[in-house]
Amino acid sequence: MEVLDTIYNEVFGFLGISQAWEIIKSGDYSAFRTYDGIKSLIYPLIPLLVLLELILGLAYKKPQTKVYKVNFLIYVFNRFVGRFIAIAMVTLLIGWLEPYALINTESNWYWFIYGYIVWELGHFIYHYLGHKVRLFWCLHSTHHAPEDMNLSVTYAHFFLEAPYADIIRTTVCLLLGVEPIMLFLIMFIDGTYGAFIHVGENMIKDARFGFLNKIMLTPSHHRVHHAKNPLYLDTNFCNLLNIWDRVFHTYQEEQTEIKPEYGITRKVNSGNFFDVYFGEVIALAKDIAQAPGLKNKLSYVFMPPGWNHTGVHKTSKIVRTTYLENKLP
């Protein structure tokens, strides 16, 4: 009976309907007009879309079942290993850093816009480092390993990536004066939209969204980010506002003649949980063990993926630059 209860709770937890269900059982439907009530209605959207996307994939006979399988295993593993680490880290940082804020903000619409721009800066920094520092790439590569883009990819993360990401994003926000209440609201919006931008072609074929493609980050932009095509490597690091990608020249639109090829450049068995989850960690450990001298060993940890102590580098910057140079007339 206890096993059935656990399964029941995990299913409700995945679908995100527990809070809404409690409100419905209470009969107090006015609670849906509160912030928590609104959240309880929004949380289930992404899990339900994941199921719908899988059903559409089966109908179109393009389900990429191995991607769903591995991402589901990652979700289950992370539920047990890293369930509360990130939120605990955010809480600790609020207590430590809030007194050192460089400016003071208030809870109104224009400070909210400011807060979101600051949050995107923090997200850009974390995400950029996740691609440019090999140690951090070991945490982030799990998210890029799937060879198909669909909503289940949003659950594919190494369990230590969330606390690493939130340390950077929360630190930037708190030091630049974003209030904790506003920060949690921004995190909720960002998490929901950040999941949605992984929507696959089974559900939305052309995800550019017309004129919105110019003023915000769309699923089309994020498909580019997940692609391993030379033109698309290490671009579009933002989540909702693409302002910082434009500032730091990492902005790239999807080209109609270049279909995104998903996955990572390392040969990986995307249907194997251990290769997807631990493959980059193992590869880094092997490079460190074989590298001559302490300087080279440390360089493998902190230099970009593709760096090699022999000088024959295959970093994304070199690959993309070479591609662009060869494309010039």
TrEMBL record:
**Protein's cellular compartments:** Endomembrane system
**An example Gene Ontology CC term for this record:** membrane
Which N-terminal stretch is annotated as signal sequence?
none
Q: Does the keyword Lipid metabolism apply?
A: yes
Q: What is its main location?
A: membrane
GO BP terms: lipid biosynthetic process; membrane lipid metabolic process
UniProt-recorded name of the protein: Sterol desaturase/sphingolipid hydroxylase, fatty acid hydroxylase superfamily
Q: What is the lineage of its organism?
A: Bacteria, Pseudomonadati, Bacteroidota, Flavobacteriia, Flavobacteriales
